[in-house]
Amino acid sequence: MSQSFKNFINGKWVESKSGQTFENRNPANWNELIGLFPKSSKEDVDDAVKAARKAFEKWRLVPAPARGDVMRKLGDLLVKRKEEIARAMTREMGKVLAETRGDVQEGIDTAYYAAGEGRRLFGKTVPSELPNKFAMAIRVPIGVAGIITPWNFPMAIPTWKMFPAILSGNTVIFKPAQDTPNTARMLVETMAESGLPDGVVNIVFGTGGEVGRAIVTHPDVDLISFTGSTLVGKQISKDASDTLKRVSLELGGKNAQIVMDDADLDLALEGVLWGAFGTTGQRCTATSRLILHDKVYDKFLSMLVDRTKKLRLGDGLLATTDVGPVVNEAQRKNVQQYVEIGKSEGATLVAGGNIVSANGTLGGWFHEPTIFADVTPEMRVAKEEIFGPVLSVLRATSLEDAVTKLNNTVYGLSSSVYTRDVNKAFEAIRDIQAGITYINAATIGAEAHLPFGGVKQTGNGHREGGWTVYDFFTEWKAVYVDYSGKLQRAQIDNY
Ligand code: NAP
Ligand code: MG
Questions:
Q1: Ligand 1 atom nearest to 413, measured from its CA
Q2: How many CB atoms within 10 Å of residue 256?
Q3: Which residue's CA is the closest to the ligand 1 atom numbered 15?
Q4: What is the pLDDT of residues 101-146, one digit of tens each?
């Protein structure tokens, strides 16, 4: 008998109304069933929204420093469970243990940041135009937040959204990806233990089409914070427009690393290996393109191919593994399709390209780390997000040429430039169209207390992380206090 899990609504673990379930399996060994999760429907979403709405009326009145105190306890509890959650995460989505530990750590850092923010949540006081009148702007909570997340950072991304939402006085309904329900369950369990009142956090498992859509279109959900594909993000944007919800979208990327002729090549090599093949290339910030200066192209490419061929595929729980499996069959098919597309477009396959069974185990969704050389800007492998262990290498003749090529995409999340020339570095910072630019570091590795998000079709202008996410989860209220004892007209009516 496999273990069955439940939704969490109004402080209780409850069955879905439909009684239907879906399976959660290990991508490194597909025969291993982790558990059954509720395949919920609109009715379950209704219950969760009702609970969240009711809880909001009390939670919004709890002083922010007291809400911060719950976040601190939550951080402490996550520290205690870090290893347990990291192992469960590797088992359900495949990335290596060192990275799932990092994913949990991001949640811990986000909890402690939120704890501190409880004593800040700064407003502003400004002078009034008129005598004996006081003017200020304060942040107020908004209501019920719908949180919809992908599977590649099953801990970091939900915490980036839920912790600031809750610290700000909102309540949440959370729909995690079907590929990673178990990490989400452990997170919500820990949140409940930290002392959050019933109804402040609710989780409803199920499909995006049913549960996700029901949240997005629900008239009593005020906010949607979504991370996932650009395709689904566009659909959510349309679906949310009828109720004019506030929507934050963090979407796809086609991130590039530039290596200039004056770069420290060994350093740039470590950067691209980590950026392209960490999390099996399944990070929104993954290095998907490498733009090499002409003068170092051949040398750097041969160094890279050499190291890539030595990467060891396997179960992420094993210390000997460098690269884990792709998350599921559909994702691996997608990777295979792009390998075929790259070949047919005339790119040169210089490493990988095949699906494999790791260590003789046929049961997992493994794909070799793959490199295409001689990629040109108009090829699909240079433009489209692949979301797997595939790197496209392009050639550039100058920094200007490299930046033009880097910008030649509808996306704009992360970017990186390796150079020892400080002038070139600052030119790149000025001209690159991306939400994140690294100098002499890989495209991955965002820190919890800085703004995170992208330009162009990577998003719709909001930022997660740091202080910036609090702008999304609060509404500004302007407050005027007139203590003159008479009707004073504002300057527009009086000048
Ligand atoms: P996805 O297919 O877009 O799914 C994301 C979430 O949306 C899942 O929970 C999914 O549910 C749900 N969903 C699907 N259709 C929906 C609908 N019509 N209405 C509401 N919700 C719906 O993305 P993914 O495959 O999980 O993740 C990979 C993508 O995420 C990549 O494109 C990657 O670049 C992007 N990503 C972006 C960032 C960033 O910060 N910019 C970070 C990480 C990942 P089910 O899958 O359970 O059906
Ligand atoms: Mg799974």
A1: 41
A2: 29
A3: 208
A4: 999 999 999 999 999 999 999 999 999 999 999 999 999 999 999 9
Q: Under CATH, what is the fold of the domain 255-439?
A: Aldehyde Dehydrogenase; Chain A, domain 2 (3.40.309)
Q: How far is CA 118 from CA 69, 157, 171, 190, 470, in A?
A: 8, 20, 15, 20, 11
Pocket test for ligand 1, best of 159, 232, 245, 464 (most atoms within 8 A of CB): 232
Just list the catalytic residues.
250, 284
Separation of 471 CA from ligand 2 center, angstroms?
A: 33
What are the φ/ψ torsions at residue 56 (nearest 5 degrees)? -60, -40
Report the candidate in 428, 416, 445, 430 with the shortest Cα–Cα distance to residue 259: 416
User: Is there an atom of ligand 1 within 6 Å of 255 CB?
Assistant: no
> What is residue 490's predicted lDDT score, i.e. its pLDDT?
85
Spatial separation of the C-alpha atoms in residues 213 and 235, rounded to whole Å: 9
What residue's CA is closest to ligand 1, atom 10?
Answer: 208
Q: What is the mean pLDDT of residues 148-176?
A: 98
Q: Does domain 7-251+459-478 have CATH number 2.60.120.260?
A: no
